[in-house]
Amino acid sequence: MPDSRPIRDVVVAGGGIVGWSAAAALRRHLPNVGVTVIADAPAPDALAERIGSTLPSIAAFHGDLGLSEMNAVARTASGYRVGTQFEGWAGNRPAYVHTYGEHGRPFGATSFHLYWHRVRQAGGTASFDTFSPAAELARMGRFVHPQGGPGSILASFEYGLQLNPARYLDLMRAFAVHLGAREHQAKIAQVDVRGEDGFVGGLRLDDGQVVTADLFVDCTGPAARIRSALDAKFEDWSCYLPCDRVILAEGTAPASLPVMDSVVAMSSGWRWQAASPARTSHGLVYASAHLSDSKAERALRVHSGAEPRGPAVAIRIGRRPDPWLRNCVAVGEAAVALEPLEWTNLHVAHSAIDRIVAMMPDRECAPIELAEFNRQSAAEAERIRDFLMLHYVTSDRREPFWRDAAAMRIPDGLAHTLRLFRERGRLPFQEEETFARDSWLSVLFGQGVLPHRADPLTDALPIARIEAAMGQMRDSIRAMASPLPTHADYLGNMMRRAVR
Amino acid sequence: MPVRVVVVGGGTAGWMTAAALAKLLPHRCTVHLVESETIGIVGVGEATLPHIRAFNERLGISEAEFMSSTRATFKLGIEFKNWGAIGDSYIHPFGTFGDGQSEIGFHHYWTRLRLAGRPVGSLDEYSMGVMAGRLNRFQLPEKDHESIASTFGYAYQFDATLFAPFLRRLAESMGARRTEGRVVGVDRNGESGDIESITMESGEVIEGDLFVDCSGFISLLLGKALGEPFRDWSRWLPADSAVAMPCRTETSLTPYTSAIAMPSGWRWRIPLQHRTGNGYVYSSAFTSDEAARDALVDAVEGEPIADPRVLRFVAGRRERSWAHNCVAVGLASGFLEPLESTSIYLIQQAITYLVELFPEKRISPVDRDEFNRLIDLEYDRIRDFLILHYHATTRSDTPFWDYVRTMDLPSTLSEKIDLFRRRGRIVKYREGVFLEASWVAVYIGQNIFPEGHDARAGVLPIGEVADRAEALRSRIRAAAEAMPDHAAYIRSYCAMAEAA
């Protein structure tokens, strides 16, 4: 007989940000479910635990949890970020800023970007990111929260957080415990799999205890300590994304706090720099076939002036085809391992946590319900992979690493997107999309990908009127930014309010 | 040089296409429509979906003027009678169940109460649109999303034979040309196979770059001249005939369309300002034309105002709706019975996609393929939704109902049904016509009840859920009772011109 009773006991494995976030969300949304966290420290290759740059979805995740930004940001010495500056990704093209949210304002009969492209074809020179209010904030190092009603220039951007991971982990742990999650400090020694149905029967811990549960949530990073005991299936994506190593470093906070991070293409990969009030994090992501670990370490040291934190970690890019199998669900990098480009590692974990809450089955964990969970997870992961791949395949750099990357076979979904965009600037809609249309546009235009022809709907307006409207937008964006506080001042004010 | 568009056929599809192209792409195309007054149009009094409002708005059509000209009434949804079982009745509303404020569908709470044996009543009582419909009330929805009177949508029921002339005036005022006469020849390029011109009975030859086939079932260009194969879906949708007969309206003016199950199909009832449209959609394999006609004549409520006339069709669609330089819009591209009022919606979507993917003189396969992908998705999703109505029944009183109840389903549909039965889950897609509330309405209206509910609906104590549901039910009833009578509202808002 299938057990159709509701799930009442959940064990979350993994004592990092992902594990504690899962515990907090489960307690918050399903308070009649008991949650125990097996709080082993995260492994070095669990990138979601180490990378501070996060996507705008984190604000909604905190909102749903009831975790205030005052706590999440001010009390953890974290900061804000409105985007990433990409340098050197497309040959000699100027750097561009990928921000989240609206570029330009809709006018006339169709999307702004199609008007921008028409002007571009007619010889216009203003870059696409010129029309992003957030990119202007980024260039000026200023920040305020989105504000004003619809139509207000500051209403339409989104922001992510620049976390200070160590302190954020402490906060999330305290918050989850406050919501009733229990902590069990131990390591998993062995996973018992029941002979009769293949379910996880229990975890043997290194303190001699055995824990059982209705559902096991595996937040142990790429090793997937529990989920990997059920099967070892893995879809390898190294044929799509060329980098397989990450090395991180940490330096002091900068004198003037930026509100974006920077991502610079290098001969065999790319490096980043991202600053929060407490630290500046650096990293180098590269392909081991093109760059040795020791050379990578040296390169990072030279560029960052900071000491690497630990040796290079290997990333095996790809995903488990069935993140949820029987009574075990893999979350974050236990389910899908991606390189850090565009900062999706923690986002993917949040998204899986939200999906678990929304699709919680009963103790039977019926395959039909899990199949829908897995279908959505797959669609989401593949689309993110395609977005990351976009950065490589549209580069025209000539080094061997870049030539290899550009020659990779493009999966169907991305090929469709590129074909349609190159034809006339349209982007197909996809289900389970993480990056909004304007994010795709930012990167496509930023990397110099231009449609072959202007969209017919744009020629109902004379070009002079389009140019005048765009000129006005640019002026109002410039006028908007200069009176705003610097990022550091804005955080300082928040801190003072928090202390009061 | 503008693209020369030739529209063949002047019914609803033809004039909607001509008006939209003339309005939205005045610099890109010239529009030449040919129609013959000797060929009737199929329009039998049309019930629409809320999407039509966006189309009218884009064309700058005033709602009151449009409604007055087409003798339209408001439509809150569709009433289904005798479908799940003889004696059953439910309304599929345009809008939500519940107050729209919860992050999970109201039907999960309803299911929880139902499974606990609480006196929860029908799901209909928790929908503003349904309750207003049952009471024959109507007013425009409130804009404030907190208000219960914002939770419904609406469409129109109008006289399609008046809609085409209404659009013709608009299209001609924007420069569309019209030629009266029958098409007797289609000339194709010997090499490319593209259509170069059509020849009229008068001998006139009309050349074009893009041909839009709005010729109806006959599919003069796409089907006949180009030979595009037809994908036949009659094994799932066996109805292939309809007999239509309008009558005087002798009961109160309902703000909804009715679809009443009949021995070998179903009967529509569409109340307009000046008459009520009636028709029996049936399968000729299960009943004769005479028997169908007699059954319709017996069933209509008012005095007939025309003789019954019979239509033939086959459910399905062309493999491609756009082949070579010919795009089919409306019945020339495919047919799905009007059970969910999707005919005009499909016309509108084809036009929207054509405008967005409007080609140059030399047509790009990228545009054409994308158009076909988008339109196929629309057809396929509607198909599954229609099949559900027939399959979800306990009726075995006639061979027809026995057949549809026991037929094999497309796997895309049986998976959806299983998922709903399990835990009330709807496979969500953001694009597409029928969303969560529509599927819920039909499942529950036809007695497919979930065996479980979303875990989040299990958090509050059941007494509290019951109290809230009861309060909501009273609030909806009170708000519906406060609305004006449908007929009175129409008199003040958009009464038809006398003797127009």
Describe this protein's structure.
The complex is a heterodimer of chains A (500) and B (500). Helices cover 35% and strands 19% of the residues of chain A. With 500 residues, chain A is α+β, with helices and mostly antiparallel strands. Chain A has three domains: 166 residues, FAD/NAD(P)-binding domain (3-Layer(bba) Sandwich); 181 residues, 3-Layer(bba) Sandwich (FAD/NAD(P)-binding domain), CATH 3.50.50.60; 70 residues, no CATH class. In chain A, strands 4, 5, 6, 14, 15, 16, 17, 18 and 19 form a nine-stranded mixed beta sheet that branches. In chain A, helix 1 runs parallel beside helix 8 and helix 4 crosses helix 13. The model of chain A has no long low-confidence stretch (mean pLDDT 95). Chain B has a domain of 212 residues: FAD/NAD(P)-binding domain. In chain B, the strands form five sheets. Chain B has a seven-stranded mixed beta sheet. A six-stranded mixed beta sheet of chain B has the order 8-2-1-12-21-20. Chains A and B meet through helix 9 and helix 11 of A and helix 10 and helix 12 of B.
In brief:
Chain A has 500 residues and is an alpha+beta fold. Helices cover 35% and strands 19% of the residues of chain A. Chain A folds into three domains: 9-52 and 164-236 and 317-365, FAD/NAD(P)-binding domain; 80-162 and 384-481, FAD/NAD(P)-binding domain, CATH 3.50.50.60; 245-314, no CATH class.
Q: What is the strand content of chain A?
A: 15-25%
How many DSSP H or I helices of chain A?
14
Structural class by SSE content of chain B: alpha+beta
* CATH H-level superfamily title of the domain at 3-73 and 158-231 and 314-380 in chain B: FAD/NAD(P)-binding domain
Give the N-terminus to C-terminus distance of chain B in angstroms: 41 Å
**Residues in β-strands, percent of chain B:** 15-25%
Major β-sheet strand ordering of chain B: 6-5-15-16-17-14-18
Helix content of chain A: 25-40%
Determine the CATH topology of the domain at 3-73 and 158-231 and 314-380 in chain B. FAD/NAD(P)-binding domain
So what's the CATH class of the domain at 3-73 and 158-231 and 314-380 in chain B?
Alpha Beta
Largest sheet of chain B: 7 strands, mixed
SS content category of chain A: alpha+beta
The number of helical runs of chain B is: 15
Number of domains of chain A: 3
Most extensive interface: A-B, 33 and 32 residues
Q: Taking Cα atoms only, what radius of gyration of chain B do you get, to the nearest Å?
A: 23 Å
Mean pLDDT of chain A: 95
- Shape, per Cα inertia axes of chain B: globular
Distance between the termini of chain A: 58 Å
- What is the CATH T-level topology of the largest domain in chain A? FAD/NAD(P)-binding domain
